[in-house]
Amino acid sequence: MSTEQPPAVVRRGTNLDRVGEFNDTVVLAAIRRAEERLSRVELAAATGLSGQAISNITRRLLDAGLVREAGRQKGGGLGKPRTLLELEPTGQYAVGVHLDPSVVTVVVLDLTGQVVARRRTETPAADDPGVLIDGIARTIEDLIAEADVPRERVVGVGIAAPGPIDVERGVVVDPPNLAAWHLVPLRDALRDRTGLPVLLDKDVTAAASAEKWAGGPNGRGSFVFFYLGTGVGAGLVIGDEVVRGSTSNVGEIGHVIADPDGPLCYCGRSGCVGETSRPRYLVQQAVQAGVLAQGIDLDDRHAVDAAFSALCTAAGQGPGVAREILTALAERIAKVVEDIANLLDLDRVVFGGPLWDRLAPFFDEPIRAAPAERFLVRSVHPLQIAGTSLGADVGAVGAASLVLDHTFSPNPSVLLPGTAQLVPRVGALGTWKVMS
Ligand SMILES: [Zn+2]
Question: Does this UniProt record's set of keywords contain Magnesium (predicted)?
């Protein structure tokens, strides 16, 4: 997706202004990714660019309001102390929208990736996509106003949506649990309503990307982000790179069979992990076991969500049937996680998603207790189990960080005339142009 290294050789002829744009993003990315503020000399060393080039580029980035000077390097050494550079948080902003069948989360991130405004609303029970998209557009405008962000500094909107998606056309294909959604052109609909550039990606990929950028040690190396929402899914980061698959639809694990004696799934098989992880199924189990009262309308998402919270509360009160229902859920998921970890030789599984806060207390022990012989490489290295540190906003934060990445990460294709895709222009912020 991106690289910190400029290409050693440019094999095709290219315009000088494109090289300039590319090098600007290389320097900006080096500043973004550095754990500490960098001096111009350190930037030259990190990027392989000459001191003169760094001087010109940092002047442009300072003039554009994307970086700022922030103190001087302390310590000994020859010469005068070097001026340090860091991102200017207010330089640009990105909006992230996470569309889950039960909750819509919208955040505004500043250039450093900090959330400056957020709102969570229940997804309207009426499934009409138009109503929902209008609501999202209004929320975006409200949040931009509330955060007091100059609109011209909003580079774009990222949407994290349930798969499968058609990234090329910006279309949500057939999300499970959103009955009225079929081939909804979400990206263009939201672009038309807001006038802002819009990116669409899968919820689990956005979550994995957020973890990679903002999750600290959890986000390093190779991990799966196991998403627990109205559906389940897996976002993948292998060797520090977000993996998307051939059509950005990686991670559809909902139909892995976790309990052959389980309920019938809409795919025609029994006991799929997605079906047996749904709050609806768990609530139904709890009603049958007498933990929850009869009479819950299982077709009412909000009633099911409230009943699911009651089940988690009951399970938290100690051993008993409620606890057993959630422990069995954790054991089914542990089985799936082990298969993924074995297949991909992962360092870690990171759990998150709208259900995670409520389920976290019941997962640690069953998953840690999974027999070592099932996780085959455990004799070589341990499999770490973690919860996301980004909370319930992780999908929305991820969606916004994809916009920042897309806009401000070096993309070697900028150098190649003839590639038709959206490319960022640091010199013309807020506009994405189609290169052809
Ligand atoms: Zn299924």
Answer: no
**CB 93 within 8 Å of CB 108:** yes
The rounded Å distance from CA 336 to ligand 1 centre is 14
- Calculated CA dihedral for residues 274, 165, 131, 150, nearest 10 degrees: 120
Nearest to 161 by CA among 127, 199, 128, 202: 202
Cα 174 to middle of ligand 1, angstroms: 14
Tell how far the Cα of 254 is from the centroid of ligand 1, in angstroms: 7
Looking at domain 216-389, its CATH architecture is 2-Layer Sandwich (3.30)
- d(CA 230, CA 181) in angstroms, rounded, equals 15
CA of 263 from ligand 1 middle (Å) equals 10
Q: Residue 159: which H helix or E strand, with range?
A: strand 154-161
- Pick from 302, 259, 268, 306: which is nearest to 286 by CA? 306
Give the DSSP letter of residue 258: S
Separation of CA 159 and ligand 1 centre (Å): 26
Pairing of strands 241-243, 103-110: unpaired
In CATH, the number for domain 93-208+394-411 is: 3.30.420.40
Neighbours of ion ligand 1 (CB under 5 A): 255, 265, 267, 272
**Rounded to the nearest 10 degrees, what angle do helices 16-33 and 394-408 cross at?**
140
Q: How far away, in angstroms, is 360 Cα from ligand 1 center?
A: 24
The DSSP code sequence of 348-386 is EEEEESTTHHHHGGGTHHHHHTS-TTTSGGGGTSPPEEE
User: What residues does each domain of the chain span?
Assistant: 16-87, 93-208+394-411, 216-389
Reading the chain (436 residues) residue by residue, the pLDDT tens digits are 444 444 443 344 444 555 667 888 889 888 887 878 999 999 999 999 999 999 999 999 999 899 999 988 876 566 778 899 999 999 999 999 999 877 899 999 999 889 999 999 887 766 688 888 999 999 999 999 999 999 999 999 999 998 889 988 999 888 766 777 888 899 999 999 999 999 999 999 999 989 987 777 888 899 999 999 878 999 999 988 889 899 989 999 999 999 999 999 989 999 999 999 999 999 999 999 999 999 999 988 889 999 999 999 999 999 999 999 999 999 999 989 888 988 999 999 999 988 999 999 998 887 777 666 676 766 777 788 899 988 888 999 999 988 988 887 776 655 544 333 333 333 333 333 333 2
